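User: Working on a comparison across species. This one is DNA-binding response regulator, LuxR family from Streptomyces venezuelae. Can you predict its structure so I can line it up against the others?
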Amino acid sequence: MIRVLLVDDQPLIRSGFRAFLDLEDDIEVVAEAANGQEGLALAREHLPDVALVDIQMPVLDGIETTRGIAADPALADVHVVILTNYGLDAYVFDALSAGAAGFLVKDIVPEDFLHAVRVAARGDALLAPSITRKLINRYVTQPLPTDTGEVLEGLTGREREAVVLVAHGLSNDEIAAHMVVSPLTAKTHVNRAMTKLRARDRAQLVILAYESGLVTPRG
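Assistant: Here's the predicted structure for DNA-binding response regulator, LuxR family from Streptomyces venezuelae:
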């Protein structure tokens, strides 16, 4: 069962998302919060698999809420998905950098919304190829972390290959097929690379892959 926390200051938005989620046999909404501060408290209480977090809220916004979840070791398995009305704006980039697994625009169709929740629960990043391109354009212009190159030296050849494939938007099953290994082995390579690079999730792994020069933007 996928456990979901809804964090949004608009009751109608929360009730709308809940209505879709409650129809699914494999998804359960465990709590709702009207701001980020409540969301953090409820995340610690219920330990959801997925937290759907609005980007702009009173008391504590989505970025700070995401940062709070990412900084709490007890919430390491909570995957934050940012909800926004505006698509890819500066706030979304900040939230991804803070530790969000991806984002959804609030006018998403129900089928895509449900699919996204399941993708996030698996630990995969919600980054379509077009989104990845914009993410790259934002982050490749930023200064590299001083220790990123040194950390890359600790990756094995197979881990590097897995990171490159993640950065190109492949799922674990697609990575497994490309590397001719089992899905479990592919996931292990990805997870070990994330641990070594100190990436919370696949979204941050993509950012690091481009920031470090391990992958370069395609023309």
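For your comparison, note: The longest strand covers residues 27-33.

User: Helpful, thanks.
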